[in-house]
Amino acid sequence: MADPHPHYVHLDDVDLQEDDEEASEEPYVIGDVEDSEQEEPDAQTDPNYALYLSSMGPTHEPSEADSDFERHLVRTACFLGGGGGDGKRRRIGSQETAALDTGESSQSSQWNPNEIDGLFCPICLEAWTNDGDHYICCLPCGHIFGMSCIEKWLGQSKRQGKCPQCNAKCKLNDVRKLFASRVISVDEESQKRIRSLEAKCASFEKERAEWHQREAELLKGQCVLERKIQQLMESKASGLINATGAFERRFVSGLTFGSNTCGQASPCRFKLEKELHVAGAHLFDVDASNQILLISRRHAGIGGKDVLTKMSLIPPYDRDDILLPSSLNSIRDLRLSPSNTNLALFACLGKKLAVLSTENNNVIVSYDLPAAAWTCSWDLNDSNYIYAGLQNGYLLVFDMRQTSGPVESLKGLTSNPIHTVHSLSYNSALPTGVRTVISASSIGLCLWNFGGAAKGPILVPETENQGVCISLAYCPRTDDIVASYRPKVEFSDEAVLTQPTPSRAIGQGTVGSHVLLKRAGSSSHFLKLGSSSGNVCDIGLPKSAIINIENCGSFFASEDKLSSELVLEELSSFTTVQRLNLQRSPVQDVKYTSFLRKGLLSCLNGNTLQLFSTKLS
């Protein structure tokens, strides 16, 4: 049984004060300064009741024989009680941490028994050793001590036969040496949880490996299916071409065009250089001299209004949004000036035609229109003139030196919208000052002359009975023109279908045609150099482009609706030379330009602008 009367150590003795000053230099101080009449905890219930002095018997003056050991116990008590020579009585082993005598407290002055449990002798609070007098040992009850300390403890006449921690009976012969450098107790519950988590991690790793293997198998199967689909589409397209007789032999000036035999492979191959995410984009143009893109897009952050975004073609592709006046909304067409004047022309369905300066991002001139504008164009020979094709079939001519309105307004052959306008390069066969414009509407191509007697419009006869004209591409450098058509849909009450006609779903395209034209002699006469069939849009107005590369020839870029690819065909044979994968269908705009000895083919589809490039010699 522990002594019910806890003992206190008076620190007035000179020797004890010196020992107390040495103990006060230690980094941890344990104990509280309390009144001697306060109730003390029992040694077996208070875990911090260091040395359990109550089990050492009644207070007595240390004899000469055991004074050293007693003095060591007192020093330890002073260390745990926050030693000091102030003459106050201090309780040893309080559960709360005492502040330093100076009144200061810090986190480093607190003693955590878990930090020394299993590492230090509970009698002297010094580390035990695996050799020498203070090597680690234990009693039958299981408590661990340093050998020299427990021998002195059990060697005291008044303490013989009791464990210092639990008071279990024992003898000096019961002490057993432990062969361990240090003893640390491990929480069994934590070990079980660790083993459980390790098992779960191993299971997850195994499952992850299985998913990776499954993914690889699926990707391999996908590649096989894509190859099969491409082969089927090519064979089907070949059958359609042979069935419609699109590749007829056409003889112009003793040359054969439109042959279905493949020529030599083109050395100019386009590779995907960059994919840029541009949310809400639907139109763009390229300024090669300033190496920028100008993109028209719907900005979700400002109520879905149209904005123009300038984007650098040089990494990291910096962007700058240009906010437009509220009257300039629903941009339908966008053209950058070909004369490097840092001007952009755009036509709006809101009956507006405007010119923007790309240097200061300001609108410098704006015209009111009698109807919605579907298309616009700069004049290639005189940068003062601009053109606008309207929804009601009219073609308007503006001189930017006159801001009041159009200088000419001409009615088309029909009231169908003019969806594309191109200014043609100067033709030496025409009188000086005559400007020529070609336009496209559903009826076909029309020619317009300004500055001369005959103004037009004149329907290009080579494009009659081709179907509905849906796209027009022009290359000023070679004067090549490619018009795209889809079949007319005619309904007759007398028509009776005797056999079911296979048809595609809406949006999957239809079998149409592409026709290559070129001016010959006077501007009103065109040569039909070749044609081909293709999978064109069944709804909407697609975009196409003509690519001219020196020492490589000319190519026609258009979307194949069946395969959702951008197809490059050699002109004038229309032989497919390359197919470029698209992010999604349809193609909203496509442009080609060259700069820095590089050919750049830009394609806008969905919210992605794909940049394909090829090296130029």
Short description:
The chain is α+β, with helices and mostly antiparallel strands and 617 residues long.
Q: Proportion of β residues?
A: 25-35%
The whole-number mean of residue pLDDT values reads: 76
- Total helices: the number is 5
Shape: elongated
Q: Looking across the biggest beta sheet, what order are the strands in?
A: 6-33-32-31
Largest sheet: 4 strands, antiparallel
> Structural class, please?
alpha+beta
Q: Determine the N-to-C terminus distance.
A: 103 Å
Which regions have little confidence, pLDDT < 50, spanning 5+ residues?
Answer: 1-67, 74-111, 240-265, 493-502
Summarize the amount of helix as a percent range: 10-25%
The total of beta strands comes to: 33
Rg over CA atoms, rounded to whole Å, is 48 Å
What does this entry look like structurally?
This protein has 617 residues and is an alpha+beta fold. It is built from 5 helices and 33 strands. Strands 6-33-32-31 form a 4-stranded antiparallel β-sheet, with no helix packed on it. Strands 7-8-9-10 form a 4-stranded antiparallel β-sheet, with no helix packed on it. β32 and β33 form a beta hairpin. α1 packs across α2 (67-81). The longest helix is centred in the middle third of the chain and has 57 residues, at 188-244. It is elongated. The chain starts with 13 loop residues before the first helix and ends with a strand. The model is unreliable at 1-67, 74-111, 240-265 and 493-502 (pLDDT under 50).
Which terms would index this structure?
alpha+beta, 33% strand, 617 residues, single chain, 4-stranded antiparallel beta sheet
